[in-house]
Amino acid sequence: MKLVRSNFEIKTRIWASVSCAVVAGTLFALSACGALSSKERDETPSALMLKAQAAYDTGKYSEAIEHLNKVVAKDTSNQEARVRLAFALNASIGVTPLNLLKSLTAGNTSGGGSTNSDLNKLTSGAGLSKTKTEDIKRQRAALTDINKLRQLFPDFQVFQDAFLTLCTLLSQQTLSDLRAKSPSAVDLMQVDKCNEGVAVSNANVSIAALTLAIDQFATLYNSVLDSNGDGQIDVQKDAQDASDKLSTLNAGAGGSAAALATLNNATQTLTTVSATLKGDVFKLATAQFSIISSVIRGSNLPTSIATPLEKAVSALESSLSKINEYLDSGKTTGSVTTSGQAAATAANNANIKADQLLQGKTAAEKQDTCKNVYCLRSGYGLPNGEADMPIECRSVTYSKTCTQ
Q1: Contact residues for 146 (Cβ-Cβ < 8 A; gap 6+)
Q2: Is 364 exposed, middle or buried (0-12, 13-18, 19+ CB in 10 A)?
Q3: DSSP 8-state assignment for residue 4
Q4: By mean pLDDT, which of 11-15, 169-173, 244-248 is the weakest?
Q5: Roughly what angle, to the nearest 10 degrees, separates helices 172-181 and 280-297?
Q6: What angle is formed at CA 324 by the lines to CA 347 and CA 383, rounded to 5 degrees?
Q7: Whose CA is closest to 380, among 267, 287, 281?
Q8: Are 128 and 215 within 8 A, CB to CB?
């Protein structure tokens, strides 16, 4: 796919023919003047760019990456080499901008349209292979550390390498928006290495960044955010269901034994929600979504690409804003002082209900329930000293080992 020119026409190659002509002309001039030895000419940026082009065209992406890395090392400000390197990194893991953009712009009109259809394009028409998505889904409970994710699934390290290659070329508005919208991305994605960006990013930079973010987000959405594919973000639904159960729970509905079982189930669910929110993989998914929306609003993308993306982003933002109610500023997920009130309210409900339901219960029932309440409070960063626990839990011994 050629680099997108001023008329934003999507091509079938990433390199611009006019750039190649200039590069070739420069190389010819150096050769004709005899200013460089043969070996030196082979390692000039212009020669390396041509070799990278040839390698890319024949599907030798690792070779193209090697050549382009040399160019960037020689000249860190070479924007064209950085963009080409990002596209080559994309291609090395099967992420092709051409197919993605065709999917996003298919049947698009400037107004109206189906929001659900565009949402499906964003989450179903992109991403890594289904096999890899299923592998992530199976291991998602263990993927609480970003380095482990990148070690087990090297494609995510490639995503990160491409992001760092591109991010210095993103617009100042995009980077500022990203830092404000998703502070956790600053740590997870090393945004501090991006500097302040440029005044206006060109369309090629925006398309490369979108390709990375959409494919990464789609993969994580399908494996982490909506793992059962019902169109609802898992933790949002689980937390709301558990909170509703706790707010309406009473010993007279179905008997005290059933009420205790419901209390235990709800607190265990909320503890799992807290563990998920604290995980790097969940944070990474929301960070990628932030990149998508930030790039769209901080770039000069053509309308044919920006319009369907804006509709898809709008369809997801309402759901993700609810998720963010459970997130703090992004550094230490779950702190009641900065998170939304849903989790805190549910935890307080659990305290109240536990006191009501534990009166007169056996030691075993108290131990089990008190542990769950303790783990719920601990999971959300709530105070969990003796005075913070239900009164009925202060006179019993219970396990304070929480598995999350």
Answers
A1: 188, 280, 281, 284
A2: exposed
A3: P
A4: 11-15
A5: 140
A6: 30
A7: 267
A8: yes
pLDDT tens for 343-373 read 566 667 777 788 888 888 888 888 888 888 8
Phi/psi zone of residue 314: left (φ > 0), alpha (ψ -120 to 50 degrees), beta? alpha
pLDDT tens readout for residues 226-285: 888 887 778 778 877 887 887 777 655 545 678 888 888 888 887 777 777 777 888 888
Q: How many residues does the chain have?
A: 404
For residue 174, give the nearest of 146, 213, 119 by alpha carbon.
213
Which residue pairs from 306-314 have beta carbons closer than 8 angstroms and sit at least 24 positions apart in sequence?
Answer: 307/108, 307/110, 308/104, 308/105, 308/108, 308/113, 308/118, 308/121, 309/104, 309/118, 309/122, 309/210, 311/113, 311/115, 311/118, 312/104, 312/115, 312/118, 312/119, 312/121, 312/122, 313/122, 313/289, 314/115
pLDDT, position 21: 33
Residue 198, classed as helix, strand or coil, is: strand
Computed over every residue of the chain, the mean pLDDT equals 76
- Structure token digits, residue 197: 């960006």
Q: How many CB atoms lie within 10 A of CB 203?
A: 18
Q: CA–CA separation, 322 vs 52, rounded Å?
A: 45
Q: What is the DSSP string of 338-366?
A: TS-HHHHHHHHHHHHHHHHHHTT--HHHH
Which pTM does this prediction carry?
Answer: 0.74
Residue 157: burial class (beta carbons within 10 Å; 0-12, 13-18, 19+): middle
The tokens describing 162, both together, are 């491409």
Q: How far apart are CA 196 and CA 181, in angstroms?
A: 16
DSSP single-letter state for residue 400: -
**pLDDT, position 363:** 87
Reading the block at residue 400, the tokens are: 């304070």
Q: Which residue has the higher pLDDT, 102 or 67?
A: 67
Give the separation between CA 288 and CA 401, rounded to whole angstroms.
Answer: 33
**In terms of C-beta density within 10 A (0-12 exposed, 13-18 middle, 19 or more buried), how is residue 33 classed?**
exposed
Q: How far apart are CA 229 and CA 316, in angstroms?
A: 14
